[in-house]
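Example 3.
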Amino acid sequence: MKDIASFVKEALVVEYIPESILSRLDARIKLISLIIFLVSISFLKGISSLLILYVFSVLLAFLSDIDTRLFFKRTWLFIPVFTLFIAIPSLFIVPGRLEFGFTVDGLIVAIRLVLRVVTSISYTMLVILTTRWMKLISSLRALGIPEIFVSIASMSYRYIFLLLELAEKLYLAKKMRTIKTDIRQEQRWIGSTIGILTVKTQYLSREVYQGMMSRGFNKDMLYLRQKGINLSDFLIIILTLVINVSILYLDKTIR
Amino acid sequence: MDIIFKLEDVSFSYLDRKPALCNINMDIYKGESIVILGPNGAGKTTLLKILDGLIFPTRGSVFAFGERLEPKKFDDARFNRFFRKSVVLLFQDVDAQLFSPTVEDEIAFGLIQLDYTEDDIKEKVECIMELFRIKDLKERSPYQLSGGEKKKVALASLLVIEPKVIILDEPTEGLDPKSTREIVRIIKELHKSDKTLIIATHNLDVAKEVSDRIYILGEGKNIIKMGTPEDIFSDMKFLEDANLI
């Protein structure tokens, strides 16, 4: 339980990196650039092209003073590993030349899928780690993402830590009073914990809602009013487009 | 003196069954420091939430700044903005009040809801962090902070909007002596700057240090005594019967 809670907290705690190259860019520009990168990644077919984009993301992370160990942990843990398990069947079902019990074309398909996922996550992480939460949320709204989606995302983020702490405390309270375990008792405990957690969640949601109301929230969430976008910010978009068009062209040429 | 809050025969019950407050009559004037003493379960938190317009009485009336507080009043955007800018409440459980990814985001939340510009927000947030000596906590997640740090961050996030009335629910509960002294120091400075303070506590030392008037809530969920600190603390037998010592 403790390990699961620590893993989730580590995965979700946003450690904003101030004063880096990417931190200074407008959040809306970073989001638009991210969308451009994600679209390109989905169209790339060559492994070498995907690798180039992935290495570029690692370079950006390095130039933005992001701890590379943290960056690799955030980008490779869980989702790409999960993707690898999904990709394994393609080793055997994609037709092609057989080598060591699997097809080479199947291996290429699997590698391509994993690379697409890890590269997409890398660029997304770059935006998240170098953008303040309030600017990220307000930029999502500015780009036309529906209010309901943004509200749910930001509310979920707010509650998840409180709920995790609650679940951890319940488990520790039970652990310190347990002398011997019995499988049926454990199952009963899990069932009752789900019920208790539901009730406590309702209480917590009421308290958090009142906390938000007390600080001005009134039915409609307001978002940060950001300043206008500069010419230099538009140049970043152009640069992003040039990089991605070039890599798409290179990908087409190599194939 | 200007009257800020007026409570007339206010009663409150949870789920229309469980009484939390009975026939509360109270006047709070501008610039006063009011302490509400009472044992656990006396209804202090409920009373403070009524004063902050988060819940509404099941019977009786609450007036703030001359206006009756009721749910439809807060549907008026102008009144909501005025009230929320003027009155703030520090929760007893600050964890429910800290819900942003970083301390800086937390402090900025109220200012964003009150529609301040980005530049104003940045300036006010920097200023309050300097005042509370929490600049080193700027990028930290509120969940990683100690109890005393959480209280300071929660208080900073309320005071950044420069309210006229500050309501504090057990502000020193669970704090070590150093953190308690720091919070009491902040409360005293707020009192000197002519803010109206309403503090619920069962810490008698805090009550003696910061109050102009004291209301005592009894186990019957009603006000059993009101007076100056000298009146209240001269009758130790009464305090013992009221389950305060």
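Chain B has one domain: 3-241. Chain B touches chain A through 42 residues (CB under 8 Å).
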